[in-house]
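user: Here is a favour to ask of a fellow structure person. I have my own habits and do not want them to colour yours. Could you put it straight underneath, so I can go through it closely?

assistant:
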Amino acid sequence: MATDPLKAISNVLEEAENTTKSGMFLVKTANQTVEDARKRPDPEPLYLSLWYEGEVCCLFADSNLGKSILAVQMADEIARKRRVLYIDCELSDKQFQLRYTSDDGTQTHMFPPNFLRAEIDPMFAMPKKSDELMLQQIEATALEMECDTIMVDNLGYLLSDMEKGVDAGQFMQKLKQLKNKHNWNLLIIAHTPKRALYSPITRNDLAGSSRLYNFFDSVFAIGQSAKDENLKYIKQVKVRHGEFEYGSSNVITCEIVKEGCFAHFRTLGTCPERDHLKERSDKDIDTRDLNIKDLYEQGKSYREIADELSLSKSLVGKVIGRLKDKGLLNPVHVHEGVDDSQTVDTTPEEKPGDLFSENDNDNEEF
């Protein structure tokens, strides 16, 4: 149902009357906050329950799992109702054309007129520190093209150094300010380091500083099925609106197909994520623990080890604790400053000789 413009203006004026401005803060009673917000429409889902209006959303996955294919599929559907600007920093126009052309070259997919694709002008002189400039260019282009939904493929072109926590935090604050300023919907595509197929997808798999994850409103990911190389699955990792409809107990099973001239994800149903995971062998566990041992003896901190191996810091601490108890760490090579003060679980192992105990029920952190 369309919003009455006069009523909308009246609501804005009433909200201003009920709000006290104090420096950088806008203050009102909790009851008034609820009442004012209740007068505005609830956010509508843009694509399933994975991305809602007014959100800065993130889609991440390993290389060659179809991030761009899924993102274009989402844009194709969303553009049937609103104007979408797709910033494509991955494919050339020829690569894009071939992906959406029939195999015999006689037909091309017809996208909605509201689907606008942009790529970086190769003649544009991009400075080394381009984060601020990229945001300015995106804002100017989206306003000029009258688009309220912006998708960027990918984060690496927006943020030059994703590992620096301070830079990542400041960048995400600017991105959210941009979204709030224009009431936009933003989707950012990102990568994940190589991850073991026996490991559930977690927040730790998003490449870059953990501050990136904290600022996103919603996050979902694509995983590779260990049971069938042709299958992928989509998992919600973070949500603001509603429940985890597609969390670990109910991921979306898909396959990538090209029907006619449209490459897309075809949904095959839902199932628990564990149905797609490889069973961990003793060899997998030993290899992981030996990698942790090697990095720790190089003087790496728990956080550095966790980031390098795509594990959680708590799991790294547990494994190191057990290695210490067994006398398997070489203290000669441990540098000063290594974060070994973390409390770890030193529960005895179930199997003599194992470096890692299956009692560490930390599946969501592998």
Summary: Residues 332-366 have pLDDT under 50 and may be disordered.
